[in-house]
Amino acid sequence: MKAKRGIALLVVGFVVSPLALGLGIILLIAASDDDKGGGSGGDFQLSGGLLRVGKGYVPEKYAAIIEKAAASCDQGLPAAVLAAQLEAESNFNPEAQSKDPVTHKPIADGIAQFIPDTWATEGIDGNGDGKINVWDPEDAIPSQGSMMCKLLKTAKAHPQYSGSPIELALAGYNAGWGQVDRYKGVPPASFAGGQTYDYVKSIMANVARLTAPDTSGDPGMSGDWTRPVDAPLGTPYHQSGGMWSSGYHTGIDFVAGIGTPVRAAGPGKVVSASRVNAYGRQVIIRHADGMYTQYAHMSELKVSTGDTVKGGQVIGLSGADGNVSGPHLHFEVRTGPDYGTDVAPLPYLRKKGVNI
To answer: What is the pLDDT of residues 206-222, one digit of tens each?
Structure first.
């Protein structure tokens, strides 16, 4: 199939590898307004509270497919991660095609930019029409989600690697898991001209932009961003050790005594206020940028699921509940509500203006 009119393809340093977007392939798309936005009109629309939909964001016609593909994964795969990938791969163009600049032979096809070898093993019949068609977004997007889900599961089995599970899965999608194994983490900027490194960095940066703002608490969703507890820092992010089921620390700790007030780091909506074995009493808050913060091991909860909280509002008291060696607050920043979607907390808080 020919590439859609208006697509310019530039291929630099072609490398054959079994991945969705061939190493060294850069797809430049001068797309029409329809390709960029979908027909929603206005700045954006909400799609199930998951994706930011509209011109410049996620095309309306693909939002539900992306959300379903993410929901089908039992590993905690955020829909906005899949959306950011599709934007990076093809700018949501189902007819995008990358070609070798010398032979002009096709390399990667469709909205998710699968190469033929990968499609042969990862392609699925997403819409149940009896066909497995790389050019059909109803097949390609579920296939992308399925492949990412497998990679995310593999990533969680390697907690000693550098990078969060989501970042490792993205690197595996772009460069092949063999390269992640080779570098024991996300390949560095020196690998393949920095393409995989930049790919992961770019997608993670765009996750919040493509996530629907949570307006359910407006105008009550207010307040400044702040340090979650008045206590010094303890165990850092990604410290390895046998105490954690993942093999490494998925957040940061604050050395806070039992009964110390714990505050919402920023305004948002409580999506979970419960007790789980490892984390003890915990609160998870979804923020307007689509990110989540988690507060664990508390001795008492002051909020309930569904509450809207202001930045700095007391949500509980620090404690020693769950799997702990002493009283402290365990704090995480996540791209989704589930375990395994963690990202480095301190850079996130600092971008919000928190002096820490």
So the answer is: 988 898 765 555 444 45
